[in-house]
Design a protein that fits this description.
Elements: H1 46-66, H2 85-91, H3 100-113, E1 121-125, H4 131-139, E2 144-149, H5 152-164, E3 170-174, E4 188-194, H6 203-216, E5 217-227, H7 234-244, H8 254-266, H9 270-273, E6 292-295, H10 297-306, E7 319-322, E8 331-335, H11 363-373
Parallel strand pairs: 1-2, 1-4, 2-3, 4-5, 6-7
Antiparallel strand pairs: 5-8, 7-8
Bound molecules: S-adenosylmethionine (SAM).
The site of S-adenosylmethionine has 21 residues, from helix 4 and strand 2.
């Protein structure tokens, strides 16, 4: 049964939302010594309480997500194209939010999986305000990147961001990513499509976009798709959104919180999303029909279910579906270069701390998601 999905049912509204954890939700600070100043106060600091609370919420979410079947049906995004000023402005702050964590995981995945980790020509589909595009351009030292989005205000914002960083190799254009015919076969080394598959009403459309990405990417290049995962129930989803989005309101990003809330209901489940992997692909050798490998505790069961008695290991590996274990905070579909077996050509995070794409306050959460993904 479809569960009703309204923002107000969470008890949140942009102006009145309570903040569960983070700066505004912390207990009031206490001095480090007792009232008379005689003995040091040995109670854990408020930050430790907040961290314990957050960890407890996280563990209970993991348990809830993993016991039982998928109940929550999909509710499409209220607006496929994001062009209202408030939403664009809020999205432009994305690098200060938890979404910087999937960006860093995606960036690292691309770095690990490409034949040539640096340089090349890239196309970023549904680029929004361009922050992931710019991360890729800088950290992968791309020779050229084109970002496309159907929202003019998003493209203007992305262009402004590129100018501010003086990134001449990057260009953003208004364009419909369901119409990629103008690009010739094999014209890019890397094509990416992040956090936008849930904006499309049909999985068939997403399938066609991924098939087109496969066509316009050189067989030795990489196709990379990343998105959110729809969770099992409405209650789990609302708890997750509160946990992840706890400090958005405190930082004036109410519109971003609302977008995130709707996106979680519009996202595809991991089971659904596997279908976007092309049945025939330029990354496959002749005779490789269903070359899907799956990485994650949660999803490998699905791989066995879909491929009879084959274990995921026995399947020729050209396309990967990666879902973190425990709580699926993201999912990635990766088409690796033709002839390459394995998603990981190189290991580890290659950028120095001074050039880390994750803001300092998100690094603990980032480490946890990295561990559960890799
Ligand atoms: C959630 S944003 C993702 C932005 C960016 N990729 C990121 O990861 O931050 C989704 C974007 O998809 C864009 N979009 C939706 N339908 C589109 C279409 N048919 N063609 C191009 N862009 C589209 C929206 O305008 C919006 O900017």
């Amino acid at each position: 049964m479809t569960e009703p999905n309204t923002l107000s049912s969470t008890g949140f509204s942009p102006s009145t939302a309570p903040v569960a954890v983070g700066p505004a939700g912390d207990p009031p600070s206490r001095p480090n010594t007792s009232a008379r100043g005689e003995r040091p106060n040995v109670l854990p600091s408020p930050g430790v309480f907040a961290m314990i609370r957050k960890l407890a919420s996280f563990v209970s979410l993991v348990v809830a997500q993993n016991v039982g079947r998928q109940v929550l049906k999909r509710t499409p995004e209220p607006q496929a194209v994001t062009d209202e000023q408030a939403n664009v402005l809020a999205y432009d702050q994305v690098m200060t939010t938890g979404l910087a964590i999937p960006y860093a995981i995606g960036l690292e995945t691309i770095y690990r999986a490409r034949q040539q980790p640096f340089g090349g020509r890239a196309l970023d589909l549904a680029c929004g305000p361009g922050h992931f595009s710019l991360l890729m351009a800088r950290h992968l030292r791309l020779d050229h990147l084109l970002g496309l989005d159907l929202s003019r205000p998003m493209v203007e914002t992305a262009s402004k961001n590129a100018n501010q960083l003086a990134m001449a190799a990057v260009r953003f254009e208004v364009g419909d990513i369901t119409r990629l015919e103008r690009f010739e076969d094999a014209s890019f080394d890397l094509t990416t499509f992040c956090d936008a598959a849930h904006h499309f009403d049909s999985l068939g459309t997403v399938e066609s976009i991924v098939a087109e990405m496969d066509r316009i990417t050189r067989p030795e290049g990489l196709v990379f798709v990343m998105d959110l995962v729809r969770l099992r129930t409405k209650a789990i989803t609302e708890r997750y959104v509160r946990l992840v989005g706890a400090d958005y309101h405190a930082r004036g990003l109410g519109a971003f919180y609302e977008d995130f809330y709707h996106s979680m209901f519009a996202a595809w489940t991991a089971h659904e999303f596997r279908r976007v992997i092309p049945g025939r692909s330029r990354r496959m050798a002749d005779g490789d029909e269903s070359s899907i490998a799956s990485i994650s505790g949660m999803d490998s069961g699905l791989a066995r279910g879909e491929h009879g008695n084959n274990s995921a290991r026995a399947i020729a590996r050209r396309w990967y579906h990666v879902v973190p274990k425990g709580l699926p905070a993201l999912q990635m579909v990766v088409g690796v270069p033709f002839g390459q077996r394995g998603l990981r050509l190189r290991r580890g995070f290659p950028w120095p701390e001074s050039d880390c794409p994750v803001p300092a306050h998100l690094r603990t959460d980032w480490s946890a998601l990295r561990l559960s993904t890799w």
